[in-house]
Design brief:
314 residues; alpha+beta; OB fold (Dihydrolipoamide Acetyltransferase, E2P); Hypothetical protein af1432; 2 domains; 5-stranded mixed beta barrel; HD_domain; NA-bd_OB_tRNA; nuclease
Length: 314
């Protein structure tokens, strides 16, 4: 397990166990079905094609299965791919387990938990503090295990909590520069903005969208949750509506999935912080795959741009 799949150079041969992150069926130009496999270990993921598949292969090589592969690292249209020579499912005798292949947040769960707890403790407004604490406690286990998305940013185990911790640190720095911002509101918005994803996504491994996720989405789910929490805690007042607005507007624009644009100063800042942290995570991921002096593959979520890594970057 020592050398990660992303550490191999083009032209090298690979023989190792990998986890199928997802498998998509396609039909080749000769009319025969094939599978596009995204295979991963803790270093990241790589694409591979499995040609001429049978119905049985589709079941054997599906998401969350561990496989033993042998193949070559190739460059295909500017992207690194794995050309498979052999593939077989891992058996009970193979010395591998799911946790060996999962990319996880760079911070331990306990450390993230204590950081977020401290931010809630620092809140001065009792209504905002109580609602935030109540909802975090309610969804605590899933919150500290789930990814922040199925693709693009923080799509790793505990990615959601890591995204929130990074955003809280950003919020704190921004509040020290702009003291007119309401710290409590911004911190609460950061903690709650994506908490609905524990219902929207299926789980920490090979996350996909649930029925609730597809039909309602994490924004609507969370607006309901804030309303329910306020009712359970006997809290009424403007804070409840403002917190709901923070969640409703954090995507910024209707075409990006926001039912409302930000109409409160802290809501505007929340949108920028969310975007900044997601973009930074995506940039670091694509740039980690290339050497100085090279361009990355095109990043669809970054306006399909290809980024250059300067020679003096280590």
């Amino acid at each position: 397990m020592n050398k990660g799949i992303l550490d191999y150079e083009v032209g090298e041969q690979v023989e190792k166990f990998l986890l199928i992150k997802n498998a998509t069926k396609g039909i080749a130009s000769n009319g025969k079905p094939f599978l596009t496999l995204i295979l991963q270990d803790q270093s990241g993921d790589i694409e591979a094609k499995l040609w001429d598949v049978s119905d049985g292969d589709e079941n054997t090589y599906s998401a969350e299965k561990i496989v033993k592969i042998m193949g070559d690292i190739q460059n295909y249209r500017g992207r690194t791919q794995l050309k498979l020579r052999q593939i077989r499912p891992a058996g009970p005798a193979d010395p591998v387990k799911l946790a060996d292949f999962l990319e996880t947040a760079p911070l331990e769960k306990d450390e993230m938990m204590s950081k977020i707890t401290q931010y809630i403790f620092d809140m001065k407004n009792p209504n905002i503090q109580r609602i935030t604490r109540h909802l975090l406690k309610k969804h605590q286990q899933a919150f500290f295990e789930y990814p922040a998305a199925t693709k693009n940013h923080h799509e790793f185990v505990s990615g959601l909590a890591y995204h929130v911790v990074s955003m809280l640190d950003l919020a704190k720095a921004i509040c020290s520069l702009y003291p007119s911002l309401d710290k409590d509101l911004l911190y609460a918005g950061v903690i709650l903005h994506d908490l609905g994803k524990v219902h929207e996504l299926s789980g920490p491994v090979a996350a996909s969208y649930t029925i609730e996720g597809n039909l309602l989405g994490h924004i609507s789910i969370m607006v309901n949750e804030i309303g329910k929490a306020a009712e359970e805690l006997g809290i009424s007042g403007e804070e409840v509506v403002i917190l709901q607005h923070m969640v409703l507007s954090h995507h910024g624009k209707a075409e990006w999935g926001s039912p409302k644009p930000p109409l409160i100063k802290e809501a505007e800042i929340l949108h920028y912080i969310d975007n900044l942290d997601a973009k930074m995570n995506m940039l670091d991921r694509v740039l980690s795959r290339v050497k100085p002096g090279e361009f990355t593959e095109r990043a669809f979520a970054l306006d399909n741009r290809s980024f250059y890594k300067p020679l003096f970057h280590k």
